[in-house]
Amino acid sequence: MFKLDLSNAAPFLPEDWLSSRAAALEKARAMLEAGNGPGGDFTGWVHLPRDYDKEEFARIQTAAERIRRDSEALVVIGIGGSYLGARAVVEVLNSPNFNLTRKGGPAIYFAGCGLSSDGLTEVIDQVRDKEFSVNVISKSGTTTEPAVAFRIFKALLEEKYGKEGARKRIYATTDVKRGALKGLADAEGYEEFVVPDAVGGRYSVLTAVGLLPIACAGIDITALMGGAAAAMEELAKPGTDNPAWQYAAARHGLYCAGKKVELLACYEPSFRFFAEWWKQLYGESEGKDGKGLFPASVEFTADLHSMGQYIQQGERVMFETVVRFAKSQREIEIPNDPDNVDGLNFLAGKSLSFVAEKAFQGVVLAHVDGGVPNVILTVEQRDARTLGALIYFFEYACGLSGYLLEVNPFDQPGVEAYKNNMYALLGKPGYEDRRKELEARLG
User: Would you write out the chain's pLDDT as a tens digit for each of its 443 residues?
Assistant: First the structure.
């Protein structure tokens, strides 16, 4: 489904970059498979493509068909892992302009992923006069951003459809047993789906968290899970020919050699939110204990005209992981211009994909010559099955990478710092002393 090429990274690595890490990788693999390493309680995603709840999966498909029939718009409310994976899949497989180009089914809007008043009111304006439904995604139901957005959209639905009508249009993806959203969903009778206890948010795209919005976009979630299952089976095999082992080892080797930034690059605009999902996955998993690669992303060729100068000649602290799709979904041919004003008639009759391929080759050579190692991941098809495999590949390699760094890849203790400050400054009960301290610092 995809091919990993490390030939443009190997010159920057010692000869034993893989063999010297084989024992550590085997230990990491064993911990992931058994769920007995640091954070092992959150490794439910490892066997998820095989062991997922088939009854709930069928309910997801049924609910998605209902939403596609009765709604012109679906508002997905969630933040971080509660929305990034779904948006990534929808945009890669459909389009970043999905709401303009869709054929059948609802437009899909994402809310609760920030605190912008302008951003939220824009979504309200888009759906207010349409038949719409809401999928609220939160394990606790108390995270500020999605909780505030849900309050607002719940009120809109109840105003538009009445309490009973709104109840039928709200789908809650939350904890199986506890939490504010679980309690509300039980009391109101919303259809519920589960955020599994053993799967952290950034690893949850292949659970109901991601699958319901993805199915509402008309994407084949059976194929998505099938691709992930195939990758699960392949990547569980130990050995240095395992591409997840190779990627994790190369990343760690480059990090130890002073490359502290990993740029995820792609030549497709539809990949933007996949990169955002990847950044959360790796940043939240590795960035702790004063360690970790800084995950960043660029879109080529556009960013070659903005970030290209720095990548070529700035601080030599980075390497690139380039995801390239081997085939375009559609082709366009460059026409001949009799006047040849732009001097580009030498390209007449060639496809734009041909030009992009030569640009890719030229960029790799230039950046490697400039001291930037390149890891190339070539994806053969842009379809649900292949994307499921790609998601699982990055998840599995991330688990291995965290254990190579000797950190817990499945917690995120640093995230609480900003939340506690925000709660205090907002006047949340129980934070009175902290509020006084922070306000004194703010002057």
Answer: 889 999 999 999 999 999 999 999 999 999 999 999 999 999 999 999 999 999 999 999 999 999 999 999 999 999 999 999 999 999 999 999 999 988 789 999 999 999 999 999 999 999 999 999 999 999 999 899 999 999 999 999 999 999 999 999 999 999 999 999 999 999 999 999 999 999 999 999 999 999 999 999 999 999 999 999 999 999 999 999 999 999 999 999 999 999 999 999 999 999 999 999 999 999 999 999 999 999 999 999 999 999 999 999 999 999 999 999 988 889 999 999 999 999 999 999 999 999 999 999 999 999 999 999 999 999 999 999 999 999 999 999 999 999 999 999 999 988 778 888 988 888 889 898 888 888 889 98
The number of beta carbons lying within 10 Å of the beta carbon of residue 240 is: 13
Which of 20, 39, 47 has the alpha carbon at shortest distance from 396?
47
Catalytic, 305? Answer yes
Q: Residue 404's Cα: distance from chain center in Å?
A: 22
Q: Which of 192, 262, 284, 320 is catalytic?
A: 284
CB burial readout 211-237, b (16+ within 10 A) else e: bbbbbbbbbebeebbbbbbbbbebbee
Is 122 considered catalytic here?
no
Catalytic option among 15, 55, 305, 315: 305
Annotated active-site residue in 130, 163, 419, 436: 419
> For residues 386 and 391, what is the distance between their CA atoms, to the nearest angstrom?
9
The SS3 assignment for 69 reads helix
* Residue pair 386/3 in contact by the 8 Å Cβ criterion: no
Per-residue tokens: 365: 């050579």
| pTM for the full predicted model | 0.95
Known catalytic residue at 158: no
Residues 6+ apart with CB under 8 A from 123: 75, 109, 110, 111
Lookup: tokens for 434:
């902290």
Two tokens, residue 156: 């809109």
- Based on C-alpha coordinates, what's the Rg of the chain? 23
Give the Cβ contact number of residue 363 at 10 Å: 22
